[in-house]
Amino acid sequence: MLVAFQGEHGAYSESAVYSYFGSSVEVLPCKTFREVFDKVERKEADYGVVPVENSLVGSVVETYDLFLEYDLKVRGEVIIKVSHCLITNVETDIDSVEVVYSHPQALAQCRRFLESFGRTLIPTYDTAGSVKMMKEKRLLNAAAIASEKAAEIYGMKIVARDIADNPNNYTRFFVLGEEDHPPTGNDKTSIIFSVPHKPGSLYNALAEFAKRDINLTKIESRPTRKKLWEFNFYLDFEGHRKERKFMEAIEALKSKAYFVKILGSYPKASNKI
C-alpha cells in the first residue's frame, strides 16, 4: 500500500499517515496538496492524506477547494496532536538566528512565541521541509518550526519545545481514496452544497437535517469564485450517507440547492485527545 502526503519525511501529515494506516505502510512525499490529489486520482498512490482543519487557526481552505476539482472520496479521518519545536543546525547559537522558516500555518500557530523571539519569518511549503533545507544548505543563521520527529530525522538541534500559542493544538486530516468507507455505525459524512442567494435559502436547506434530528458537526462557507458574494457550504454531519434518514436528508437538500456533492462517509476518528 502506498499513501501520498504533502511535505517531506518528518511532516505532521506523515505522522497522520502512520497513525491511520500503521507503521508498515509505504509513503510518498508530495510538494503540494494538489499533487496528493493527482497521485490518488491517477492511481499512482492507493490513498492520500491531507489536512483539513486545525484547532487553533481553522480550516485548510486549499484542501476544501480541491474537492471541487477532483472526484475523490473521503474514506477516513484522523486527528493528531501538533507539538511544534524551534529547530536549528547543531552548530547554531540561538543568538545568531536571524530568520525562522516554516509552513504559514505553523507560523500562525506560534505567533506569540515568534513575536517575542523577534526574528524575520519566512513561509515555506512544509514544516519538515524547512528543517531539511536548513540541513542541506547548512544555514547557521536560521531556525525552523517543525516536529521533534523532523529534528530527529535530519540530525538537528531542538532549541525550544511546545511553542504553539495553545497546547491544545490538533490537526484533523482526511484520508482520500476512490471510494468512501462502508457503514460502521459510528460514522460522519462530509458534503458540499450551494443554495440560491436569497433570504431563507440556507435556513431551509439546514432545516432538512434538523427535522430528522441529524447532528451537524461543522459548517463553513467558501466563495464560489463564479459570482460575487455567492458561496459554497461545506458541511459535516454525524451518520452515514447510505442510511435511510441521511439519504432522505440529502435528497431533500438537492431539491433546495443549486448543487450537492457528497465528499464521502467515513468512521469517526478515535478520540485520543
Question: H/E series, N to C?
Answer: EHEHEEHEEEHHEHEHEEEHEEHE
Structural class: alpha/beta
Number of E-type strands? 15
**CATH H level of the largest domain: which superfamily?**
Periplasmic binding protein-like II
| Rg over C-alpha atoms, rounded to the nearest angstrom | 20 Å
> What number of structural domains do the residues give?
3
What number is the mean pLDDT? 94
CATH topology heading of the largest domain = D-Maltodextrin-Binding Protein, domain 2
What would CATH call the class of the largest domain? Alpha Beta
Shape: elongated
The residue fraction in helices comes out at 25-40%
| Tally of individual helices | 9
Alpha carbon gap, first and last residue: 27 Å
CATH architecture of the largest domain: 3-Layer(aba) Sandwich
Stretches where pLDDT falls below 50 for ≥5 residues?
A: none
> How much of the sequence is in beta strands?
25-35%
In words, what does this structure look like?
By secondary structure, the chain is an alpha/beta fold. It folds into three domains: about 90 residues, D-Maltodextrin-Binding Protein, domain 2 (3-Layer(aba) Sandwich); about 80 residues, D-Maltodextrin-Binding Protein, domain 2 (3-Layer(aba) Sandwich), CATH 3.40.190.10; about 80 residues, ACT domain (Alpha-Beta Plaits), CATH 3.30.70.260. The chain has nine helices and 15 strands.
Map the helices and strands:
Layout: E1 2-6, H1 12-21, E2 26-30, H2 33-41, E3 47-54, E4 58-59, H3 61-66, E5 73-81, E6 85-88, E7 99-102, H4 104-109, H5 111-117, E8 120-123, H6 127-137, E9 142-146, H7 148-154, E10 157-161, E11 170-177, E12 187-194, H8 201-210, E13 216-223, E14 231-238, H9 244-254, E15 259-267
Parallel strand pairs: 1-2, 1-3, 7-8, 7-9
Antiparallel strand pairs: 3-4, 3-11, 5-11, 6-9, 6-10, 12-14, 12-15, 13-14
